[in-house]
Give the backbone structure.
Amino acid sequence: MPLLPAALVNRLLPQLRPLRRGALASLVREDIFDFYGRLLHPQLQLHRVFARVLSCREEGDSSLVLTLAPSANWRGMQPGQHVALTVDIDGIRHTRRYSPSVLPGGQVEITVKRQEGGLVSGWLHEQAKPGDYLELGQAEGDFVLPATPPAKLLLLAAGSGITPLLAMLRALRAQAYQGDVVMLYYGRRRANLAHLTDLASFPGLRLHICLTGEAPGDGESSGRFSAAQLDELVPDAAERRAYACGAHGFVASVRAVWQARALPALADEAFTPPVWQAADDLPITLTFARSVGQLPGRTGSTLLEQAEALGLRPAFGCRMGICNTCSCHKRTGAVRDLRTGLVSTEPDEAIRLCISAPVGDVILDL
Amino acid sequence: MATSRTLSPQESEAFGQELDALRNRTLADIGAADARYIRRVRASVRLTELAGRTLLFAGFFMPTWIVGVLLLAYSKIVDNMELGHNVMHGQYDFMNDPEFSGKTYEWDHSSTSDAWRNTHNYQHHTYTNVLGKDHDIGYGTVRVFAEQRWRPFYLLQPLWALLQAVLFEYAIAIFDLKLDRYFKGKISKAELAAKLPPVKRKLWRLFLKDFVIFPLLAGPHFLAVLAGNALASLLRNLWTFTVIFCGHFTEHAEVFPASVLKNETRGAWYVRQLRGSSNLSGSRLLHFMTGNLSHQIEHHLFPDLPARRYATLAVEVREICQRYGQHYNTGSFAGQFLTVLARIFRHAFPSRPVVKPA
């Protein structure tokens, strides 16, 4: 039991501003404040956000809907943005990104699809319970609606790509949006599709369910996204502002049709799973999120050598994996430790550039 | 001198492979227990600091004052050794916890952790006991090996060593500035000035904390807190100095010319780490209070493995060394320290390297 009530803590958090900025802030070490803070209440942290799990509910056959109450340190989000959710499993913290919806009370709803063999999704499905505290990051991403919502919208979702679009729809409903929305929602089986009841209740939403792994029912379509299907289901696609979200392949095929047709204004976001390539020296894309963006890379040599060859100057020391100077935050992608041969696919982890070779596309905080 | 036999290139390669295999076996086992351990260590550091400072606030009532000093000294020592030093090596990066990230960890020590990560994690651990490359050899003030060039300055080095022990954290804090090289004219004033601001900031900050703010907060007990903080800091300095000098400057510790670095293989690197380091035998408490740097050999072979593993690793490392005819430099704390003192006194005077029989 926390020593302080949550309500008091959350009233206190905004008052900590002088400790975050200004002369006093230089005297306070965040990790020490946080250590003593969490003895009193898990949410009493200087900057970090911990959210209390209010409820866990099953949706479809493989989705878990978590309702979370973030601490007052959370700066809120725009529908469509994503946040990092971090859980501690056996002392090791694992981070995954989700696109939540903000509920009218300021709570956050996150849909977690169970991935086969997925460590974090499996843990959340089995272990998360009301009363737990999970760490939440601040919202990121520019997959959002414009300030004035367009009159005609087309939403394309595949699998868990539904979540940012659902967040947008909920925000539109809250604003009493009067426009015209068409949604194509792709999934292998009907039972996989989450939030169908919620979607059915949106006024003015024309929902087309497209199943790729079983026979469609009445009013449903079958097959993957294609230009022909788009023409059939959404003849006025050219007049609509379009948003697409799903796995990498899905988003790529939507983008290809939009380019081929020269259709206007597609916003898209892909949940890219790590691409596994076992061969020795294949072309890949390295993304240096803080500096130059995307550059071509190879799987064959270390990230440090490649970054240097591309003109970057990351900090380094021993170049043999012992001094940790080149330690760098990897957001996504798989890397191979050249000393042990082990491949790590964990998103959001510290890696050493000098002994890590990319196995597929990698995104680095560099 | 130590009785290690010279390994052929093939042997040193095989020696390295055995150590790599040991490392990988340990890596595969790292997880929840290590994470729980370091969180507990940190909790003990924070809570003993709080308890120690609270007791000191009670003023000069001897029993509480002494316990307060000891608790605070414990907190400072463990923060320095088992927590700060080991976390900054990246030993706990596997936890993915920003509070235990080697890259960003900050410690309660006058040396900025950025400077430490450079001089210690990089320079010292890469170039262990290589003359001219590892500036930890004597820390610029003490001549501990005959291979270092003698100068009259060293005649008084027992005194310099004592001063360094008393002021150890400040010596480490300004170490990265390489003041000796500045006075020799090898570094310009501008180069020195560029490095100063973070060092000054950190020194000032810790000085204010222990010698101004906490004493002032104690009001009428100003002096009791000031004296208590000073004594706790002194205890930490003497302890860390002793442990660290015992790690590399004992009787059988070897020093190497810069030429060894040329085309050095991984196996040869391991051999050098072994020969340049020395262990202390003793109780579990001793190992803990030294941040497991009593297992300096294992630390140098595997600087990024959690230090709590070194005691277990030591059994196998020792066995491997025996098979390869490599001297495993260990001894009691007192015994090893005496050989360090002997070195400090002996090499105050001109001395020449013993030529090893081929």
User: Anything to note?
Assistant: The first strand of chain A starts at residue 49 and ends at 59. The mean pLDDT of chain A is 90. The longest helix of chain A spans residues 248-261. The radius of gyration of chain A is 22 Å.
